[in-house]
Amino acid sequence: MNFSEFISMKIQNSHILVFRQFDYQILDITGGYLNEISIEFSLPEEINNKKIIQAIYKKCPKLKYLKSIFLGENITEFEKILINCQYLDELFISVDNLFDQDKLFEILTKSSPTSLYKFRIWNLSKPESLKLFFDNWKGRHPMTFLEFDFKNGRDFTSDLLDLIKKYKGERVIANYSFRR
């Protein structure tokens, strides 16, 4: 059995792919049936990252769970995942230093499918941008933050906790946790 046969068989049985390193071309053989993609590490090159994102939104319309690293240069490509993967309900993203977090939250509120309400967001550097995100999320399915991580081990201020508790009280957030 060659590698492509093994991957095809694995895809048919579980509809899940987990990679330590990821080659976007592997998605060509999935036939659009993947439910979950978890990319633990991808080369930090803009071109490779962009091709991975493009392959996901072109080849994986039934995707429900996505874990990946996104580079700031590819924020408009990231939005296409939200538009084209309408079954997405959980998103685990790690952003780089150049990722415009205000733009990220704007895109999440504008383009997320109605099924998406579970988030894990790592490497945040601007907790103040969360207020606008929470305000814009009102009226949607309450968010579940499975994990929140701030860049450089930033201390969680009481203001941030108060903000999150406020939106939990308003049923914008269902559950949350912080990664320390």
The name of the CATH superfamily reads Ribonuclease Inhibitor
What is the first-to-last residue Cα distance? 44 Å
How do the strands of the widest beta sheet line up side by side? 1-2-3-4-5-6-7
- As residue ranges, the low-confidence spans are 1-13
Number of H/I helices? 6
Sketch the topology as an H/E string, one letter per element.
HEEHEHEHEHEHE
| CATH top level label | Alpha Beta
Can you give the mean pLDDT?
79
Question: What CATH architecture label applies?
Answer: Alpha-Beta Horseshoe
Notable traits:
alpha/beta, 7-stranded parallel beta sheet, 6 helices, globular, disordered N terminus
Explain this structure to me?
Strands 1-2-3-4-5-6-7 form a seven-stranded parallel sheet. Helix 2 runs parallel beside helix 3 (75-84) and helix 3 (75-84) packs parallel to helix 4. It has helices at 3-14, 46-59, 75-84, 101-111, 130-137, 158-169, and strands at residues 16-19, 36-39, 65-70, 90-95, 118-124, 143-150, 173-175. The chain has one domain (3-175): Alpha-Beta Horseshoe (Leucine-rich repeat, LRR (right-handed beta-alpha superhelix)). It has 180 residues and is of the alpha/beta class. It is globular, with a radius of gyration of 17 Å. The protein contains six helices and seven strands, in the order αββαβαβαβαβαβ. Strand 5 (118-124), helix 5 (130-137) and strand 6 (143-150) form a beta-alpha-beta unit. The longest helix has 14 residues, at 46-59.
